[in-house]
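Comment thread on ticket #2218

A.B. wrote:
> Attaching the input chain for the structure job we discussed in standup.
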Amino acid sequence: MQLVLGTVQFGMDYGVQGGIKPSEERVSEMLSLALAEKVNRFDTASSYGSSEEVLGRYRKSNPNKAKEMHIISKLPPKALVDEPQRNWKDIILRNISRSIRRLNVSELDAFLFHNAEYIFDETAIRALQCVCGENMAKKIGVSVYTPKEAMKALEYDEIKVIQIPYNIFDQRLDKCGFFEKAEKKKVEIYARSSMLQGLLLMDPDRLPERMEFARKYLRRFLNICIEYQLSPLEAAIGYVGEHSGIDYVVFGVDNKVQLLEYLAMRDEKLTEDVKKTFQKEFEEVEEKLVNPVLWEC
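C.D. wrote:
> Ran it. Output below, let me know if you need it in another format.
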């Protein structure tokens, strides 16, 4: 399993459980531990609060470790909204320049659309591709939210990286041939939301009122974990990490203890029986469960 450390928690409070961002000193400790454990890929975005600046200051203070770091960032979701197409290239170049400066890098490993609606416009794809021609990013890609967006992204040869939501509850991309097509096109697949913003680690009896709809699913998940003597973390990360169509698993942590727990899971494997049980149990779920945007509704 190839782990990628997500950094949204390093720049802002995040998660259904109301996580509080750690101090910069704690972040530095976690980054050093991750690198020591060969986790050298980091996922960030300009919309993740001060995340880019925090990573950039760490790189500046640790030049030897900085050489090992591979960083993906993203265009702000609304960067192109209400802007004429003729300005898109310049807007993208200005934004990636800011990210590069904040991150203290000369080139990003990849630069993604954070707003997947842009992949339905070829002009936007061509505009994003300019960052490769300017040697500001090695690859371009997109962070998607729905199967429709994921399948559309695969239509473009320029798109080399797709970040997808995937977890035990969210198996939508298994049903539409996405992984098979992505493998043929040699597109790198990054899976995020393996914990569904922390929902899979919560006590079903302590969910906030707005999340009551998830209680029945969470109880079923925990019952299977008990049956197979798995912790929720083992089950959730193992299910995603062993998927043959997923190249990297993006995960986020608030503290060093959580990071150590993830690192300990890297070599854990679920039995085929366990995986099939989860697949069958959650093959059909309501969309609200797998789309955090709808949780406030």
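A.B. wrote:
> Thanks. Noting for the ticket: The first helix runs from residue 8 to 11.
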